[in-house]
Write a structure and sequence with these properties.
Elements: H1 2-68, H2 72-88, H3 97-120, H4 122-125, H5 128-139, H6 144-161, H7 166-172
């Protein structure tokens, strides 16, 4: 009897290992394709976002010139703009889409915070050059179709990543989440 239980346990263990191998072999290509589509959809956004973040750097400079450069949002924005600049120097083929998307997401959040600070301060609201820089930043928007294509690809990738059977494989092989691109303002 004990011999049968051991044999059955070995068979169950072999089936579990085989099932795990089959799951990995069938899931990784799907995850690779979905992540590749996200990266592909990110590429057309790189140049428009670079132009947008040049305007954001001008906003941050005007913010500092208006005497608010010591605020946390200005310092954080400066650091993230420098990170974006370093990342964006890579050619499209060598770009780290994941790091760029995360940095863009952080920049958009910081831009929202900075604009809120400007709007809540009577002194800063009265600085014309700062208001003009904010308006120029808000007017520099990537093509909506490109944003939609990227966000759709991101949503599809997240659906693949978070599937019941795919989640362990995604975690094991570091298929990390990608943020949606939500513009500030």
């Amino acid at each position: 009897m004990a011999r049968r239980v051991r044999r059955l346990a070995v068979i169950v263990l072999i089936l579990l290992v085989a099932g795990a191998v089959v799951l990995v072999v069938t899931t990784r290509p799907t995850l690779d394709d979905a992540r590749g589509e996200v990266d592909h959809r990110w590429t057309p956004l790189r140049a428009p976002l670079a132009a947008r973040y040049e305007k954001l750097a001008a906003v941050n400079a005007e913010f500092a010139a208006a005497g608010a450069g010591n605020r946390d949002v200005a310092r954080a924005l400066g650091l993230n703009l420098a990170r974006w600049d370093r990342l964006h120097r890579a050619r499209d083929d060598d770009a780290d889409a994941e790091a760029e998307a995360q940095t863009a997401d952080q920049l958009e959040g910081l831009a929202t915070r900075l604009q809120a600070v400007v709007l809540s301060s009577d002194r800063l609201k009265g600085v014309d050059t700062l208001n003009q820089a904010v308006a120029a930043f808000q007017g520099t928007v990537p093509p909506p179709a490109a944003i939609k294509a990227y966000n759709d690809a991101t949503r599809d990738y997240e659906d693949e990543r978070n599937g019941l059977l795919r989640r362990p494989v995604a975690s094991l092989f570091e298929y990390d989440a990608r943020p949606q691109l939500v513009l500030s303002g």
